[in-house]
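Following up on my earlier thread - several people asked me to post the actual chain instead of describing it. Fair enough. Here it is, all 123 residues.
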Amino acid sequence: MSGAALVFWKAKLPDGSVYINYDVDPDRDNDSGLVEVDSGYIWITPKVPGQAKGVRIRTSKLERVSGLSPTASAALACLLGWGNQAHEMLAGTARKYIENPVPPPVFQPFLRSPYDAKKYTDA
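Reply from S.P.:
Thanks for posting it. Predicted structure:
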């Protein structure tokens, strides 16, 4: 089973916050179609605007898989450890950065899809 094709939007705000929004790509030619809804965001804000240390991370995810009830979807998410993996991806990376600071990567424009070289860019 392949996952859903997703599209992303990202921005950096004047207060130093960054966010990534995502949703199912309307061009679904190259995925299984089993995931009917997959959307959400990651929003990272400084605890104190203008200070380099301390951030607040907020996330949201909405997903519906064809043939699964909300209870079955929640159970699957728990069994697969989605919450733990998300925490490690976000907070674990921050912890590792604090212990061994390196310059953060530069945001690169997202490709519309692996099959299309046109890029989404900040306008």
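The mean pLDDT is 79. That should answer part of your original question.
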